[in-house]
Specification:
By secondary structure, the protein is mainly β. Strand 23 and strand 24 form a beta hairpin. It is globular.
C-alpha cells in the first residue's frame, strides 16, 4: 500500500518579488516556448526561456530560469510553463510577453530529490522523482504561480517513478514506474480530485518510459520500451483494457489482449494522437544505429455511427470499437527517432518524426555516409497512405533568414513540437549541440528559418496544438 508523507517548511517555498508587468500589451495567438542552456559542465549558468512568435518567427522575450534546465512542460491552456533544473529547483512562469526574470517563481527541491518529469493539473503539479522514490505533489494558491510541496506519494521498491500521464480535467492520472530488476513495470493511480493514490497498482510491460491519455480521458496508453509494446488502460474503469485487434493482412480477429504489439517495433519511446482519424502514432527508436520506425495504430471507440458493429455499446461509457488496437502500418524512418508530432488540423494527415541519428557520428552535411556521418533529419509521413513523403535534413550550417547570420551546426535533434496554422503549420526542432532552433513550414516541408536561442537547445513546446 502507498502511504503519504507530508512536506512543509519555508525551505521549500519560493520567494516571489512582485513587479508590475511592463512591455507590449498585445500578444500573438501562438508561441513556441523553448528552453536553452548557455552554460557548460565547467561553467554552469542560468538557463533561458525564449518565446518565439508563431506568425513572424521572431524572439519576443528571453528570461532567466534555473541553472542547467533539462525538462519543460506547459499547462493544458498554454498559459503557464514549468521547468526542472540542474540546480535542484523547479521554476514556473506565465507565458506572456511581459515576462521578466523577476517574475519567474523558483522552488527549491527536497534534499536527495532527482526529478525526471512533471505533469501540471489544475492547482497541482505532479513530479516523478526517482531520487525520492516518489511522485511529489506541489500546489499553488489561487491566482499564484508560487509552488509549495504538499505531499509525496511513495512508490514501493523495487519500482522507481519515471513519468505521469494525464489530461486536463481527468478524474485520475497515472504514475509510471520502472522495475529496477528489469521485470515488468507498474502504474499507480492518482485520484486527482482527492489527491490520493489507489492501493492497487496496474501491471504494464518492461521498461515503461512514456504514456499518453486521450483527450476524453477514457484511455491511457503506456509505452514499454523494453518489450516493444503499448499497454492500454481503461481510465473509466481504472483497469487494464481488453480488446480484440484485427490482423491487418487478413482482417481476422486476433486473441483478446490488453497490449498492443507491433512485431516490427523496437523501443517505442514517444506517441501522439491523430484524433480525427482515431489513430495513435508511436515513434520506435530502434537500436540507435539502424533506421527506426513509426507505428500507426487504430484506436476507435464505439459511437452512434459504430453501434451496428458494437451492439452492447453504451454511448455514455464507450467500449472499444471493432479493430481497436490494430497495427495498421510500421513505417521505416531515420536513425534513432526521438519524437513524433501530428499536425492537429482538420485532417490530421501529416506526422513529423525527429530523427536524432547515430550519436557516435556527426550529422551529415548532405547525404549520410555509413560509419562516417549520420542523418539528422525530420521525416514527413502522409497518414492517408502511411508512407514517408519527405525527409528534411536539418541545416548543418544554416543561415538565419531574419538576420542573414551564418550559425553553427544544428546537430542531433533532441525535441520537436508541431502546431497548426493557416496558410502553414510549423514544426520546431531543437538540438543540444546548437544555439539555434530550426523552424519547418509544413506547406513546403522545408526549413523556413532558424531562431537564435543564446544557449544550446533543450526542449520546445507550443501554446496551441
Amino acid at each position: 500500500m502507498l502511504t503519504l508523507v507530508t512536506g512543509c517548511g519555508n525551505n521549500y517555498r519560493p520567494v516571489v518579488t512582485a513587479i508590475n508587468p511592463v512591455g507590449p500589451a498585445a500578444q500573438p495567438s501562438k508561441f513556441a516556448v523553448v528552453i536553452s542552456d548557455p552554460g557548460t559542465a565547467a561553467s554552469p549558468a542560468p538557463g533561458l526561456v525564449t518565446f518565439v512568435d508563431f506568425a513572424g518567427d521572431t524572439v519576443l522575450i528571453t528570461a532567466n530560469i534555473g541553472v542547467n534546465p533539462y525538462y519543460l512542460i506547459l499547462n493544458s491552456g498554454g498559459t503557464t510553463g514549468f521547468t526542472l533544473n540542474g540546480d535542484h529547483t523547479l521554476t514556473s512562469f506565465d507565458v506572456d510577453t511581459s515576462l521578466l526574470t523577476s517574475n519567474i517563481n523558483q522552488t527549491t527541491l527536497l534534499p536527495n530529490a532527482n526529478p525526471v518529469s512533471l505533469f501540471p493539473e489544475g492547482a497541482s503539479t505532479y513530479v516523478a522523482d526517482p531520487g525520492l522514490g516518489a511522485v511529489s505533489q506541489f500546489t499553488s494558491a489561487s491566482g499564484s504561480l508560487a509552488l509549495s510541496l504538499q505531499q509525496n506519494f511513495p512508490i514501493a521498491s523495487p519500482y522507481t517513478p519515471i513519468y505521469t500521464v494525464g489530461v486536463a480535467g481527468a478524474p485520475r492520472a497515472y504514475a509510471i514506474s520502472q522495475n529496477t530488476t528489469g521485470a515488468n513495470g507498474i502504474v499507480s493511480t492518482i485520484e486527482t480530485t482527492s489527491n490520493t493514490v489507489d492501493s492497487v497498482t496496474i501491471p504494464v510491460g518492461k521498461t515503461p518510459v512514456y504514456g499518453v491519455m486521450t483527450a476524453d480521458a477514457r484511455r491511457a496508453f503506456i509505452l514499454n520500451e523494453g518489450d516493444g509494446t503499448e499497454t492500454v488502460i481503461n481510465a473509466q474503469t481504472n483497469l487494464l483494457d481488453t480488446f480484440t485487434p484485427l490482423n491487418p493482412a487478413t482482417g481476422q480477429p486476433l486473441p483478446v489482449t490488453s497490449t498492443i504489439a507491433d512485431p516490427a517495433a523496437v523501443a517505442p519511446i514517444w506517441a501522439d494522437f491523430a484524433p480525427v482519424r482515431n489513430e495513435m502514432v508511436v515513434a520506435n527508436q530502434g537500436d540507435g544505429v539502424h533506421p527506426g520506425s513509426l507505428s500507426v495504430i487504430s484506436i476507435p471507440l464505439c459511437s452512434a455511427n459504430a453501434l451496428p458493429s458494437n451492439p452492447n455499446c453504451d454511448p455514455s461509457n464507450p467500449i472499444d470499437a471493432v479493430g481497436f488496437g490494430t497495427v495498421q502500418a510500421n513505417i521505416p524512418v531515420g536513425v534513432r527517432p526521438v519524437m513524433v508530432g501530428v499536425v492537429q488540423d482538420v485532417n490530421n494527415s501529416r506526422a513529423y518524426v525527429a530523427n536524432g541519428g547515430d550519436l557516435s557520428l556527426p550529422c551529415a552535411v548532405a547525404t549520410p555516409v555509413a560509419g562516417v556521418t549520420t542523418g539528422c533529419s525530420v521525416s514527413v509521413i502522409d497518414l492517408n497512405t502511411n508512407t514517408v513523403i519527405a525527409t528534411i535534413p536539418l541545416p548543418t550550417n544554416p543561415t538565419n533568414s531574419n538576420s542573414s547570420v551564418t550559425v553553427v551546426a544544428n546537430g542531433h535533434p533532441n525535441y520537436l513540437a508541431v502546431t497548426s496554422g493557416t496558410p502553414t503549420s510549423k514544426v520546431y526542432v531543437t538540438s543540444g549541440e546548437s544555439n539555434f532552433m530550426t523552424v519547418i513550414r509544413t506547406d513546403t516541408d522545408a526549413v523556413d528559418t532558424t531562431v537564435p536561442l543564446q544557449g544550446s537547445g533543450v526542449s520546445v513546446r507550443v501554446t496551441l496544438p
